[in-house]
Amino acid sequence: ETGVTQTPRHLVMGMTNKKSLKCEQHLGHNAMYWYKQSAKKPLELMFVYSLEERVENNSVPSRFSPECPNSSHLFLHLHTLQPEDSALYLCASSQVGGFRDGYTFGSGTRLTVV
Amino acid sequence: GEDVEQSLFLSVREGDSSVINCTYTDSSSTYLYWYKQEPGAGLQLLTYIFSNMDMKQDQRLTVLLNKKDKHLSLRIADTQTGDSAIYFCADLLWGKLQFGAGTQVVVTP
């Protein structure tokens, strides 16, 4: 496996369910990110982990809960979501200070809340 | 308004040049990037430009940066059907990438 891998690719969940999104990076990076992508809106940065510590939470509702057990893995735990949370959730990684390389993205999880 | 703004749609004929425009608000941005997203995929880095440069060329891609107007553009020469995708402009501000909403480029035969 190379790059950034996200699972599952697609997820349909009810508003009362609990599920988790998983992200794994094989690039030796030390920062990881969750973004939300909705149609015709800028990508929304949700969480940033740098050196395994959460450094940013952009006022994301508490029904989204991130977890970063080590520098290679990132989770997004979901519970009691709303239909407006339906979107593509993208994980990314980078090397702190590696600005020329930008961020490397996974293919995303397409989440539908019913 | 948004920190990074782009027009949402561009239609171009195969073989023509495409120009995708982007404006950003913060003059402290140090690096600016162009990413490409194909259907069902994540964002792929195409190119970047450092803020002290005016232009950068990489094969069919030319990036122009006007710092005074905070305007960034991406020109794709000889546009092909494989260039149909969503193109995102992003700036690096305080160590974080801020993205626009993306420009959907449709290449017609």
How many helices of chain B? 0
Count of beta strands of chain B: 11
Number of strands of chain A: 11
Report Rg of chain B. 13 Å
Distance between the termini of chain B: 36 Å
Which of globular, elongated, flat, extended, rod-shaped describes the shape of chain A? globular
Give the overall average pLDDT of chain B.
93
Largest sheet of chain B: 6 strands, mixed
Main structural class of chain B: mainly beta
Unreliable spans of chain A: none
Radius of gyration of chain A: 13 Å
What are the low-pLDDT stretches of chain B, counting only 5+ consecutive residues below 50?
none
Mean pLDDT of chain A: 93
Largest interface, C-beta closer than 8 angstroms, per-chain residues: A-B, 23 and 25 residues
Q: How much strand of chain B?
A: over 45%
What quaternary form is this?
heterodimer
Distance between the termini of chain A: 32 Å
Q: What sort of overall outline of chain B do the alpha carbons produce when their principal axes are compared?
A: globular
Contiguous helical run count of chain A: 0
Q: What is the strand content of chain A?
A: over 45%
Descriptive overview:
The complex is a heterodimer of chains A (114) and B (109). Chain A has no helices and eleven strands. Chain A is globular. Helices cover 0% and strands 56% of the residues of chain A. Chain B is mostly beta strands and 109 residues long. In chain B, strands 2, 4, 5, 9, 10 and 11 form a six-stranded mixed β-sheet that branches. In chain B, strand 4 and strand 5 form a beta hairpin. The interface between A and B is medium-sized, with 23 and 25 residues.
What is shown here, in short?
The complex is a heterodimer of chains A (114) and B (109). Chain A is mostly beta strands and 114 residues long.
